[in-house]
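User: Fold both of these, please.

Assistant: Here is the first one.
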Amino acid sequence: MTIARAARHFWLPVTNENERGGVRHAFRGPRWDGRPADSAVCGEQVALARPSELDWIHFPSCGDCYEILKSEQ
């Protein structure tokens, strides 16, 4: 069984530029390839950077990304 490329996604913590903290967004593709910016599944255009371990722990998942991916199943 193979997974269609369009169905693959990854999550990545993204810091908030305007306030402290951030959120984990989902992005299309198998993994982050180092690109500096991308459009999240929810449509938000965000800057990407290598997250810290604490970002993974403290940043909540984007509810919109989650709901969109859930509806695609």
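And the second sequence with its predicted structure:
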Amino acid sequence: MAEIIFNKAALERLDSPEQPEDERQKNALFELAMIAKHEIANDQGMTLREALAKLRIARTRHR
């Protein structure tokens, strides 16, 4: 879920060229933080080990 949201936020940054780059990045990071807060509140978060394992798997798939 977080991967999809991260990709969505990244795409939104690219879709709005009228905003300065740093403002788009700040908005995307804020959105990610709010989504993470919501996931944690709903017990959908993951441990650091789980996150690292998902990242490792994602990196090996894209090679």
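Residues 12 and 19 are 11 Å apart (CA to CA).
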